């Protein structure tokens, strides 16, 4: 256990990813579980002392049991890592989720964590109660303008030249883009956090590998309640990314935060809005629904995607045909069916027949 200057206690643990990399994660707060997908500028200990992050951690901890982790190569996680590809990062998230021990949880993707969370949501829909994106994207280059592409190239050069320098003038470029309305004290903390989070080589390699990941094609496969939170004037990840997420995820709701900061700060009006939206969104997770019974309305138990799949199954379609009609992978169809069977209390070889019968009995 570790106690910090804010008198907040967090439990720091380590999970082992599929390739053996140790991923540091921490648990604090009380309430329904909320797993926060890694933000590249993080340090599980240093963040608690930060005038940029402290209010966010304390606010989330008042409404949820927060599980957050340092990305591979960053913070307290294993350093000197060269693989920052999508599969490795999804495996990190899987390792943390499994090690934390919560059967189901809400997932929040921050910044570059979007593609990882999207892939996890598609692969493991049965684990998620709901999904949130905060200042995030499906792909860094998705719908990027020429000006943005040129900016990405300039950023890499800045990292190579100035990341390790004692002075913060090069790192200040990133700080001023993330929190343009921040105070000098807040800017200095972000300047320092960049060096504390990772070394120059990791910053360059991880960023280059993140830039080529695009999970946009997976968005239509997501079938959990989804909330997209994004600052309208975000200079790091433009607001167009939020529109892209919300318009391609079925039923997603978009909340535009009136801020120019990538990280919404404590003293701006957008912060209580963000906290209220998250609080209201996860409120349903505080209530554990009773097991389904034969008399329950199946349409109130299953998600829209599960119902779509079950209706096609009722028409005689096999899993391969269902996947083709709904433009899903066969694996995703199988996972949705298994999730539906679990909700209906069905198992074994007769589960599909029994689920279809439940659906048809309502017709």
Automatic annotation (TrEMBL):
Gene3D superfamilies cross-referenced by the UniProt entry: alpha/beta hydrolase (3.40.50.1820), Winged helix-like DNA-binding domain superfamily/Winged helix DNA-binding domain (1.10.10.10)
CDD domains, alphabetized: LuxR_C_like (cd06170)
Residue span, HTH luxR-type domain: 295-360
Annotated keywords: Hydrolase
Highest taxon of source: Bacteria
Matching PROSITE patterns: HTH_LUXR_1 (PS00622), HTH_LUXR_2 (PS50043)
GO molecular function: hydrolase activity
Full protein name: Alpha/beta fold hydrolase
Pfam families: GerE (PF00196), Hydrolase_4 (PF12146)
Organism: Microbacterium alkaliflavum
InterPro entries xrefs: AB_hydrolase, AB_hydrolase_1, AB_hydrolase_fold, Hydrolase_4, Sig_transdc_resp-reg_C-effctor, Tscrpt_reg_LuxR_C, WH-like_DNA-bd_sf
